[in-house]
Design a protein that fits this description.
Function: Catalyzes the phosphorylation of the 3'-hydroxyl group of dephosphocoenzyme A to form coenzyme A.
Shape: globular
EC number: 2.7.1.24
Low-confidence stretches: none
Structural class: alpha/beta
Strand order of the largest sheet: 2-3-1-4-5
Distance between the termini: 18 Å
CATH architecture of the largest domain: 3-Layer(aba) Sandwich
CATH superfamily of the largest domain: P-loop containing nucleotide triphosphate hydrolases
Number of domains: 2
Order of helices and strands: EHEHHHHEHEHHHEH
Helix content: 55-70%
Radius of gyration: 18 Å
Number of helices: 10
Protein name: Dephospho-CoA kinase
Keywords: ATP-binding, Coenzyme A biosynthesis, Cytoplasm, Kinase, Nucleotide-binding, Transferase
GO molecular function: ATP binding; dephospho-CoA kinase activity
Strand content: 5-15%
Mean pLDDT: 90
């Protein structure tokens, strides 16, 4: 099962609650951070392409610097995705083979459509949020101005595109308690589906 949603939609909270039920989770963002650690070939390739200005003084990837550069040079996004996505997919495939010991495995991929990783999932769960609420959350959480928040949202697939590929949707339009209730309902549904599949 794959979990996705726009930035600041609440998908991290949903994933945390599902993980607390003992479900194996594979987070593409965690893998994406691992493959650009110092010494990894992805970081070397990024450094060769963008120059040393995308590194911190201690040789780590300066994410903010790279993000700002990509926003100002959107044509470079394609190169970066071609560099990272195949490496991320290989590690996801490895982890799926190694860790699938629970009734279902949750694959958490914020950029599910953009990466093409939706092909890896039996079902797709989308956490959806009102666009105005989303922008407000980005500004508060990431300490950015509204214009930059709008740019971040525009760089991802649209709300309509995500909803079009969804098998299941959690609308994050209420309290945390309501979000948890909806999450647990989907979790129970997935347990039943897994049970039926292997019956």
């Amino acid at each position: 099962m794959a979990l996705t949603g726009g930035i600041a939609s609440g998908k991290t909270t949903v994933a945390k609650w599902i993980a607390q039920q003992g479900i194996d989770c594979i987070d593409a963002d965690v893998i994406a951070r691992q493959i650009v650690e110092p010494g990894q070939d992805a970081l070397k390739a990024i450094c060769q392409h963008f120059g040393k200005q995308v590194l911190t003084a201690d040789g780590h990837l300066n994410r903010r610097q790279l993000r700002d550069y990509i926003f100002n040079h959107p044509e470079q996004r394609h190169w970066l995705e071609n560099c990272l996505h195949p490496r991320i997919k290989n590690l996801i495939d490895e982890q799926l083979l190694r860790t699938s010991k629970t009734p279902y495995t949750l694959l958490i991929v914020p950029l599910l459509i953009e990466s093409g990783f939706d092909k890896l999932a039996d079902r797709i769960l989308v956490v959806d949020i009102d666009p105005q609420q989303q922008l407000k959350r980005i500004c508060q959480r990431d300490q950015v101005v509204m214009e930059q928040a709008e740019q971040i949202v525009a760089s991802q697939s649209t709300r309509q595109e995500r909803l079009a590929i969804a098998d299941d949707v959690i609308y994050n339009d209420g309290s945390l308690a309501e979000l948890k209730q909806k999450t647990m309902a989907v979790h129970r549904q997935y347990l039943q589906l897994a049970q039926a599949k292997f019956a």
